[in-house]
Amino acid sequence: MDGIKVVLILNHGLFSGEVILDGDIKLYRIGELAKAGAVSERTIDYYTKLGLISPEKRTLKNYRLYSHETLLRLKRINDLKQEKYTLEEIRQTLDKWDAGPEIHQVSDKLTYLELHMQQLEREVKELSPLLKSMKPGQARHLLLNLLPQGAACIEAIRLFLEQGPTL
After folding, report:
1. Whole-angstrom Cα distance, residue 8 to residue 19?
2. How far apart are CA 12 and CA 143, in angstroms?
3. HTH merR-type domain spans which residues (predicted)?
């Protein structure tokens, strides 16, 4: 086998199992990556064929080995799928992520904000019928409590759009 087998237990719970060390780089076989990423081995194969992920290297027996960065990328793919992104949209997002560290950081933050806003929108839609069923005074009181936070969010977005780079 290329490298040394060790048992790695990460505190954040993403993985517990055998990995292969190649220098200081931790490499996962396909089954280990699938388990750590909570997907099937077929999904790993499919994402590899689509170019969403790629192996870091191959063993002498031609087994694919994936890096820890691939595991993080797989988590990002799963997060985007949860938000109903298509695989093509995910590919475009990952391409932006791969473009460079600055673009990656900004793209990552914007994607997070977009996902968070979508979640908030869903929650507001869920609350709408409840607000309509409340007495007008109760609903008004609740909405007035939310107004400062909502205004602050809108102002932050406005400032970002005004001061950010031209698109």
Report:
1. 7
2. 37
3. 27-96
Q: Whose CA is closest to 56, among 3, 99, 10?
A: 3
Query: Can you give the pTM of this predicted structure?
Result: 0.51
CA-nearest of 121, 122, 108 to 79 is 108
d(CA 148, CA 155): 10
Q: Average the pLDDT over 123-146 and give the result.
A: 83
Q: For 1-26, what is each residue's pLDDT tens digit?
A: 444 444 343 333 444 444 555 556 78
Rounded Cα–Cα distance for residues 112 and 120 (Å) = 12
Q: What integer is the mean pLDDT of 86-98? A: 87
pLDDT number for residue 78: 92
Residues in the chain: 167
